[in-house]
Amino acid sequence: MLELNSNLPPMAAPPTLPRQQIRYARILDAAAGFARKGLDSVSLSEVSAKANVPLGTLYRYFPSPTHLMLGLYRKQLGELQVGSWPETRGSRLPSLAGVVMEIFHMRLMQPAVEQCLSQGVYTKDKDTTLLLREIDVLAEQAVTVASGDAAKSRVLLLTVAGLVQAVRCRRLSLFEAEEDLKKACSLLTRC
């Protein structure tokens, strides 16, 4: 889907050993908090400290903030793929709140990803708009599968868009937006 420009240092392949996978996941989890504020707020040394991993380990996997943000977004895109969600207790369907919350967090960090893409780190023949459309399609598919209803899916995705704007404009805290999103999921599952 996405190819890095050859003038950037290559990223290492994701780890295969369990201990390394735990560190890799901690790096990506720590990076998610910085990504919400934009690419310029991503400091590899701060991510390393927050993830409690040596800076050299972080650089081995992600030689630049751009690599880190795109690695995080790839992980989230992979999680968004329909069929990759864990089943909820007693049901084969994914948790609606879990799917919608993941999409919400992806949307919060999307400006950082768009910034990476606009800096020319991808090959010139790749269209950023196509990537963003693909994300929209994946989001709608995942929410529709989880909710079982295309109309509910559209309402929840519009709710996500509004809450993302409220967080970015600082009208709501991240915590308040997450709570509102959980309530919206709960209300729509009762209908």
Describe, in plain words, how this protein is organized in 3D:
The protein is mainly α. It has a single domain (18-86, 93-190), classed as Tetracycline Repressor, domain 2. Helices cover 67% and strands 0% of the residues. It is built from eight helices and no strands. α5 (96-118) crosses α8 (174-190). The radius of gyration is 17 Å and the shape is globular. It starts with 17 loop residues before the first helix and ends with a helix. The model is unreliable at 1-8 and 88-93 (pLDDT under 50).
Q: Please, what is the CATH homologous superfamily?
A: Tetracycline Repressor, domain 2
Helix content: 55-70%
CATH fold-level label: Tetracycline Repressor, domain 2
Radius of gyration: 17 Å
Q: Estimate nothing, just give the exact number of structural domains.
A: 1
The averaged pLDDT comes out at: 77
What is the count of DSSP helices, taking H or I runs of 4+ residues? 8
In CATH, what is the class? Answer: Mainly Alpha
Distance between the termini: 37 Å
Structural class: mainly alpha
Q: Unreliable runs, pLDDT <50, ≥5 residues?
A: 1-8, 88-93
**Overall body shape:** globular
Largest sheet: none
